[in-house]
Amino acid sequence: MFFDYRTIPFAWNLITAGYIEQTVYGAVISTIGLLFIGKLLEPIWGSKEFLKFIFVVNFLTSVSVFITAIALYYATMQEKYLYMPISGFHGVLSGFLVGIKQIMPDQELSVFGIARIKAKWLPSLMVFFSVIASFFTEDSAAYLPVVIFGTYMSWIYLRYMQRKVETNFKGDPSDEFAFSTFFPEFLRPLVNPIAAIFHRMLCGRSETSNEAKGYVLGGTPLPGSDPIEASRRRERGARALEERLAAERLAAARNAEDLKDDASENV
Protein backbone atom coordinates (compact mmCIF):
# COMPACT_ATOMS: atom_id res chain seq x y z
CA MET A 1 0.00 0.00 0.00
CA PHE A 2 1.09 3.61 -0.22
CA PHE A 3 0.61 6.77 1.79
CA ASP A 4 0.90 9.94 -0.24
CA TYR A 5 3.31 11.58 2.16
CA ARG A 6 5.75 8.65 1.81
CA THR A 7 5.34 7.89 -1.89
CA ILE A 8 7.82 10.45 -3.21
CA PRO A 9 10.87 8.92 -1.45
CA PHE A 10 9.45 5.40 -1.98
CA ALA A 11 8.15 5.65 -5.52
CA TRP A 12 8.02 1.88 -5.99
CA ASN A 13 4.89 1.93 -3.83
CA LEU A 14 3.05 3.05 -6.96
CA ILE A 15 3.84 -0.36 -8.48
CA THR A 16 3.39 -2.61 -5.46
CA ALA A 17 0.27 -1.04 -3.89
CA GLY A 18 -2.11 -2.66 -6.35
CA TYR A 19 -1.03 -6.13 -5.31
CA ILE A 20 -1.54 -5.65 -1.56
CA GLU A 21 -4.98 -6.11 0.00
CA GLN A 22 -5.77 -4.63 3.40
CA THR A 23 -8.49 -7.16 4.29
CA VAL A 24 -9.08 -10.87 3.90
CA TYR A 25 -12.32 -10.16 2.04
CA GLY A 26 -10.47 -8.02 -0.46
CA ALA A 27 -7.87 -10.74 -1.01
CA VAL A 28 -10.58 -13.38 -1.60
CA ILE A 29 -12.53 -11.19 -4.04
CA SER A 30 -9.39 -10.21 -5.94
CA THR A 31 -8.23 -13.83 -6.20
CA ILE A 32 -11.62 -15.05 -7.44
CA GLY A 33 -11.87 -12.18 -9.92
CA LEU A 34 -8.37 -12.81 -11.25
CA LEU A 35 -8.98 -16.53 -11.70
CA PHE A 36 -12.44 -16.27 -13.21
CA ILE A 37 -11.99 -13.30 -15.54
CA GLY A 38 -8.40 -14.28 -16.30
CA LYS A 39 -9.66 -17.54 -17.81
CA LEU A 40 -11.66 -15.48 -20.30
CA LEU A 41 -9.10 -12.81 -21.21
CA GLU A 42 -5.77 -14.67 -21.03
CA PRO A 43 -6.51 -17.19 -23.85
CA ILE A 44 -7.54 -14.33 -26.16
CA TRP A 45 -4.81 -11.83 -25.30
CA GLY A 46 -2.04 -14.30 -24.55
CA SER A 47 -0.13 -14.65 -21.26
CA LYS A 48 2.41 -11.92 -22.06
CA GLU A 49 -0.20 -9.34 -23.00
CA PHE A 50 -2.39 -10.32 -20.05
CA LEU A 51 0.45 -9.67 -17.59
CA LYS A 52 1.38 -6.46 -19.40
CA PHE A 53 -2.20 -5.23 -19.09
CA ILE A 54 -2.17 -5.87 -15.33
CA PHE A 55 1.15 -4.07 -14.85
CA VAL A 56 0.33 -1.02 -17.00
CA VAL A 57 -3.20 -0.51 -15.68
CA ASN A 58 -2.09 -0.96 -12.07
CA PHE A 59 0.75 1.56 -12.46
CA LEU A 60 -1.30 4.19 -14.31
CA THR A 61 -4.12 3.83 -11.79
CA SER A 62 -1.74 4.29 -8.84
CA VAL A 63 -0.17 7.39 -10.40
CA SER A 64 -3.60 8.90 -11.09
CA VAL A 65 -4.85 8.17 -7.57
CA PHE A 66 -1.65 9.65 -6.09
CA ILE A 67 -2.08 12.88 -8.08
CA THR A 68 -5.77 13.04 -7.16
CA ALA A 69 -5.03 12.64 -3.43
CA ILE A 70 -2.44 15.42 -3.56
CA ALA A 71 -4.92 17.65 -5.39
CA LEU A 72 -7.63 16.91 -2.80
CA TYR A 73 -5.22 17.80 0.01
CA TYR A 74 -4.35 21.19 -1.49
CA ALA A 75 -8.01 21.85 -2.32
CA THR A 76 -9.33 20.99 1.16
CA MET A 77 -6.18 21.19 3.33
CA GLN A 78 -7.31 17.99 5.05
CA GLU A 79 -4.32 15.85 5.98
CA LYS A 80 -6.32 12.63 5.81
CA TYR A 81 -5.68 12.55 2.06
CA LEU A 82 -1.94 12.40 2.77
CA TYR A 83 -2.14 9.72 5.45
CA MET A 84 -4.90 7.54 3.99
CA PRO A 85 -3.59 4.03 3.12
CA ILE A 86 -4.47 3.17 -0.48
CA SER A 87 -3.98 -0.27 -1.97
CA GLY A 88 -5.83 -3.15 -3.57
CA PHE A 89 -6.37 -4.99 -6.81
CA HIS A 90 -9.82 -3.55 -7.47
CA GLY A 91 -8.48 -1.06 -10.00
CA VAL A 92 -7.23 -3.90 -12.20
CA LEU A 93 -10.44 -5.86 -11.61
CA SER A 94 -12.37 -2.85 -12.91
CA GLY A 95 -10.03 -2.86 -15.90
CA PHE A 96 -10.79 -6.53 -16.54
CA LEU A 97 -14.46 -5.60 -16.94
CA VAL A 98 -13.45 -3.12 -19.65
CA GLY A 99 -11.63 -5.98 -21.38
CA ILE A 100 -14.81 -8.06 -21.19
CA LYS A 101 -16.73 -5.12 -22.67
CA GLN A 102 -14.30 -4.93 -25.58
CA ILE A 103 -14.22 -8.64 -26.38
CA MET A 104 -17.80 -9.74 -25.83
CA PRO A 105 -20.02 -6.64 -25.47
CA ASP A 106 -23.28 -8.29 -26.52
CA GLN A 107 -22.85 -11.45 -24.46
CA GLU A 108 -25.71 -11.69 -21.95
CA LEU A 109 -24.76 -12.61 -18.40
CA SER A 110 -27.00 -13.76 -15.59
CA VAL A 111 -26.95 -11.68 -12.39
CA PHE A 112 -27.73 -13.93 -9.41
CA GLY A 113 -30.29 -15.72 -11.57
CA ILE A 114 -32.58 -12.69 -11.33
CA ALA A 115 -31.76 -10.52 -14.34
CA ARG A 116 -29.64 -10.65 -17.46
CA ILE A 117 -27.40 -7.82 -18.62
CA LYS A 118 -25.05 -7.39 -21.54
CA ALA A 119 -21.35 -7.57 -20.76
CA LYS A 120 -20.75 -4.11 -22.23
CA TRP A 121 -22.47 -2.53 -19.22
CA LEU A 122 -20.35 -4.24 -16.54
CA PRO A 123 -17.71 -1.44 -16.23
CA SER A 124 -20.38 1.27 -16.12
CA LEU A 125 -22.36 -0.58 -13.45
CA MET A 126 -19.20 -1.15 -11.43
CA VAL A 127 -18.45 2.59 -11.36
CA PHE A 128 -22.09 3.51 -10.79
CA PHE A 129 -22.56 1.26 -7.76
CA SER A 130 -19.17 2.31 -6.37
CA VAL A 131 -20.26 5.95 -6.53
CA ILE A 132 -23.59 5.10 -4.86
CA ALA A 133 -21.80 3.13 -2.13
CA SER A 134 -19.45 6.05 -1.48
CA PHE A 135 -22.36 8.06 -0.05
CA PHE A 136 -22.93 5.42 2.64
CA THR A 137 -19.36 4.46 3.55
CA GLU A 138 -16.54 6.24 5.30
CA ASP A 139 -13.19 6.85 3.63
CA SER A 140 -14.63 6.24 0.17
CA ALA A 141 -11.62 8.16 -1.17
CA ALA A 142 -9.56 5.05 -0.46
CA TYR A 143 -11.36 2.96 -3.09
CA LEU A 144 -13.58 5.10 -5.33
CA PRO A 145 -10.73 6.83 -7.25
CA VAL A 146 -9.07 3.43 -7.72
CA VAL A 147 -12.20 2.00 -9.34
CA ILE A 148 -12.78 5.05 -11.54
CA PHE A 149 -9.17 5.39 -12.70
CA GLY A 150 -8.82 1.62 -13.10
CA THR A 151 -11.77 1.68 -15.49
CA TYR A 152 -10.57 4.74 -17.39
CA MET A 153 -6.89 3.77 -17.64
CA SER A 154 -7.76 0.31 -18.89
CA TRP A 155 -9.90 1.89 -21.60
CA ILE A 156 -7.03 4.23 -22.53
CA TYR A 157 -4.68 1.25 -22.77
CA LEU A 158 -7.03 -0.92 -24.84
CA ARG A 159 -8.19 1.99 -27.00
CA TYR A 160 -4.79 3.46 -27.87
CA MET A 161 -1.88 1.37 -26.61
CA GLN A 162 -2.50 -2.37 -26.83
CA ARG A 163 -0.71 -3.85 -29.84
CA LYS A 164 -2.62 -6.41 -31.90
CA VAL A 165 -0.32 -9.28 -32.89
CA GLU A 166 -2.42 -10.25 -35.91
CA THR A 167 -2.37 -6.76 -37.45
CA ASN A 168 0.63 -5.09 -35.71
CA PHE A 169 -1.55 -2.01 -35.10
CA LYS A 170 -2.16 -0.40 -31.73
CA GLY A 171 -5.49 0.12 -30.06
CA ASP A 172 -9.12 -0.37 -30.93
CA PRO A 173 -10.56 2.63 -32.83
CA SER A 174 -13.95 0.99 -33.46
CA ASP A 175 -17.07 3.00 -32.71
CA GLU A 176 -18.35 0.17 -30.50
CA PHE A 177 -15.51 0.88 -28.05
CA ALA A 178 -15.75 4.68 -27.97
CA PHE A 179 -15.76 6.40 -24.59
CA SER A 180 -19.40 7.42 -24.96
CA THR A 181 -20.46 3.74 -25.05
CA PHE A 182 -19.91 3.64 -21.29
CA PHE A 183 -22.93 5.94 -20.94
CA PRO A 184 -26.64 5.47 -21.72
CA GLU A 185 -27.85 6.51 -25.16
CA PHE A 186 -29.53 9.71 -23.99
CA LEU A 187 -26.25 11.01 -22.50
CA ARG A 188 -24.02 10.26 -25.47
CA PRO A 189 -24.78 13.49 -27.39
CA LEU A 190 -23.46 15.36 -24.33
CA VAL A 191 -20.47 13.07 -23.79
CA ASN A 192 -19.24 12.87 -27.38
CA PRO A 193 -18.15 16.55 -27.76
CA ILE A 194 -16.30 16.46 -24.42
CA ALA A 195 -14.69 13.13 -25.25
CA ALA A 196 -13.59 14.48 -28.63
CA ILE A 197 -11.73 17.35 -26.94
CA PHE A 198 -9.77 15.03 -24.65
CA HIS A 199 -9.36 12.64 -27.57
CA ARG A 200 -7.34 15.27 -29.44
CA MET A 201 -5.73 16.97 -26.45
CA LEU A 202 -4.54 13.94 -24.47
CA CYS A 203 -4.20 11.22 -27.07
CA GLY A 204 -3.40 13.13 -30.23
CA ARG A 205 -5.67 10.93 -32.30
CA SER A 206 -7.25 13.29 -34.81
CA GLU A 207 -8.39 11.96 -38.16
CA THR A 208 -5.16 13.23 -39.69
CA SER A 209 -2.94 11.45 -37.22
CA ASN A 210 -4.96 8.26 -37.67
CA GLU A 211 -4.24 8.30 -41.37
CA ALA A 212 -0.55 9.02 -40.78
CA LYS A 213 -0.26 6.14 -38.31
CA GLY A 214 -1.88 3.68 -40.67
CA TYR A 215 -5.42 3.33 -39.44
CA VAL A 216 -6.78 4.61 -42.74
CA LEU A 217 -5.36 4.97 -46.18
CA GLY A 218 -7.19 7.04 -48.73
CA GLY A 219 -10.30 6.98 -46.58
CA THR A 220 -10.33 3.16 -46.41
CA PRO A 221 -9.68 1.48 -43.05
CA LEU A 222 -6.74 -0.88 -43.03
CA PRO A 223 -7.12 -4.47 -41.81
CA GLY A 224 -7.53 -4.65 -38.05
CA SER A 225 -8.66 -1.04 -37.62
CA ASP A 226 -12.26 -1.28 -38.80
CA PRO A 227 -15.43 -2.81 -37.34
CA ILE A 228 -14.62 -6.15 -39.00
CA GLU A 229 -11.67 -6.71 -36.67
CA ALA A 230 -13.77 -5.65 -33.70
CA SER A 231 -16.43 -8.14 -34.76
CA ARG A 232 -13.85 -10.91 -35.02
CA ARG A 233 -12.55 -10.05 -31.56
CA ARG A 234 -16.06 -10.20 -30.12
CA GLU A 235 -16.66 -13.54 -31.83
CA ARG A 236 -13.48 -14.97 -30.31
CA GLY A 237 -14.51 -13.72 -26.90
CA ALA A 238 -18.02 -15.11 -27.18
CA ARG A 239 -16.65 -18.44 -28.40
CA ALA A 240 -14.21 -18.62 -25.48
CA LEU A 241 -17.04 -17.94 -23.03
CA GLU A 242 -19.31 -20.53 -24.64
CA GLU A 243 -16.55 -23.15 -24.53
CA ARG A 244 -15.92 -22.44 -20.86
CA LEU A 245 -19.62 -22.66 -19.98
CA ALA A 246 -19.97 -25.89 -21.99
CA ALA A 247 -17.01 -27.40 -20.16
CA GLU A 248 -18.54 -26.45 -16.80
CA ARG A 249 -21.90 -27.96 -17.78
CA LEU A 250 -20.18 -31.17 -18.92
CA ALA A 251 -18.23 -31.39 -15.66
CA ALA A 252 -21.42 -30.84 -13.64
CA ALA A 253 -23.22 -33.54 -15.62
CA ARG A 254 -20.41 -36.00 -15.04
CA ASN A 255 -20.40 -35.28 -11.32
CA ALA A 256 -24.16 -35.84 -11.19
CA GLU A 257 -23.76 -39.19 -12.99
CA ASP A 258 -20.99 -40.24 -10.61
CA LEU A 259 -23.15 -39.39 -7.59
CA LYS A 260 -26.04 -41.31 -9.11
CA ASP A 261 -23.85 -44.38 -9.72
CA ASP A 262 -22.50 -44.20 -6.16
CA ALA A 263 -26.03 -44.03 -4.79
CA SER A 264 -27.07 -47.05 -6.89
CA GLU A 265 -24.12 -49.07 -5.65
CA ASN A 266 -24.90 -48.25 -2.03
CA VAL A 267 -28.47 -49.39 -2.50
Automatic annotation (TrEMBL):
Protein name, entry field: Rhomboid-like protein 19
InterPro entries: Rhomboid-like_sf, TMEM115/Pdh1/Rbl19
Disordered: annotated segments: 215-236
The organism of origin for this protein: Carnegiea gigantea
Keyword Transmembrane helix annotated: yes
GO annotations of cellular component type: Golgi apparatus; membrane
GO BP field: retrograde vesicle-mediated transport, Golgi to endoplasmic reticulum
Subcellular location: Membrane
Recorded topology in the membrane: Multi-pass membrane protein
Keywords: Membrane, Transmembrane, Transmembrane helix
